[in-house]
Amino acid sequence: MSRVIDFLARRRAVSPSSPSAAPAEQAGFLRGFSVEVMPRTAAKIARFADLLPRGTRVYIAHIDGTPIEDMVSTARRIAGEGFEVMPHFPARSIPSRAALADWIDRYQGEAGVTSALLLGGGVSEPRGDFHCSMQLMETGLFDRAGFRRLHVAGHPEGNTDIDPDGSDRNVMAALRWKQAFAERSDAEMALATQFVFEAAPVVDWAARLRAAGVNLPIHVGVAGPAKLQTLIRYALACGVGPSVKVLQKRAMDLTRLALPFTPDEVLADLAAARAADPDLQIAQVHFFPLGGIDKTAEYAADRAERGVVRYA
C-alpha cells in the first residue's frame, strides 16, 4: 500500500493537473454515490427525483434535538420518491432502549426503512442508555426488525474524542469488533467516513485496516462544491483532521480564494489509487452537500457521467 501512497505523491509532484485514472475509471468510481441531508435542508427541495438518480442512497443526519417526527417524515417523503433512505442513529442522543425500539419501528412502519447509519453522535455526554454504536448493535433490535444494511462511522484522520492521546488504539479496537459483528451476523456493513480533502490519509488508513483484518467497504466522505469559507467553517466545527491543510493552502492563494471549491482533486486521487490497487476496499463516494444539495447533485451527476477531467 505504501507504493500507492508514493504513487499519489509522485503524481501530484510531476503533473498536478493530470489525473492518472482514465475518465471512464473515475466515472465508474462515482456511480452509485450517496448523499447526506438534514430535515431542514431537505424541506427546501421540491423534488429529490429532479436532482438525484433513482435509487440513490440518501443519509438523513440526525442533529441532536431534532424531533423524531421530523426525521421520520423526511424519511417517508424521500423514500416515497424512490430512494434508499439511511437515517442516522446517534447513540448518545437516544434516551433509552425503548426509544430506540420506537425509532426503529416508526422508520420501518411509516417509511419502509431497512438501513441505518449507527454512530456515537455529536453530544459529549449520553442522554440515556447508550454511548456508542456497538451498544446499539448489541441490542439485536435492528436484526429483529429486518434492518439488513448497517453502516458505521469511519475516521481516516483519527478521532481525538475516542483516542485523546492521538493514537488510534480505541478506534481500531472498535473496528475489529464491528468486523467480527459483520462476520457473525447477516448485516451488510460498511464504513462511512467524515469528509476529507486529501486522498493519501484515506489510502493509508485502508492499508492499516486491511493489516488489522478489517475488510469492511469504505464509503469516503467528500464535501460537494461550496465556497472555501463555508468549507473551512464546517471543517473546524466538525474536527476534520490533517487534510484540512488543503483548504488552508488554497486560502493563502488570493487568486483562488473567491472561486468555488470542488472535490475534483481528492476524487481523482482516490480513483487513481483504486486503479493502482484493485483490492483497495474504498468502495464508493459519499457527498456532504455543504454548498447546497442542488449544486452537489449536479456536480455528482456530471462527474459520474464523464469522470473528473480537471481540477478546480
Account of the protein in words:
It is a single chain. The chain has 312 residues and is of the alpha/beta class. It has one domain: TIM Barrel. The protein has 13 helices and eight strands. The protein has an eight-stranded parallel beta barrel with strand order 1-2-3-4-5-6-7-8, surrounded by five helices. Strand 3 (84-90), helix 5 and strand 4 form a beta-alpha-beta unit. Helix 1 runs antiparallel to helix 9. The longest helix is centred in the middle third of the chain and has 16 residues, at 169-184. The protein is globular and about 50 Å long. The two termini are 27 Å apart. Mean pLDDT is 86; it is low at 13-19.
List key phrases describing it:
312 residues; eight-stranded parallel barrel; 44% helix
Helix and strand run? HHEHEHEHEHHEHEHEHHHEH
- The best one-word shape is globular
- Proportion of residues in β-strands: 15-25%
What's the level 1 CATH class?
A: Alpha Beta
Average residue pLDDT = 86
Structural class: alpha/beta
CATH architecture: Alpha-Beta Barrel
Helix-strand layout with pairing:
Blueprint: H1 2-14, H2 23-30, E1 34-37, H3 39-42, E2 57-60, H4 68-80, E3 84-90, H5 97-111, E4 115-119, H6 133-138, H7 141-144, E5 149-154, H8 169-184, E6 188-195, H9 200-211, E7 218-223, H10 228-238, H11 245-251, H12 264-276, E8 282-288, H13 293-306
Provide a brief overview of the structure.
With 312 residues, this protein is of the alpha/beta class. The protein has helices at residues 2-14, 23-30, 39-42, 68-80, 97-111, 133-138, 141-144, 169-184, 200-211, 228-238, 245-251, 264-276, 293-306, and strands at residues 34-37, 57-60, 84-90, 115-119, 149-154, 188-195, 218-223, 282-288.
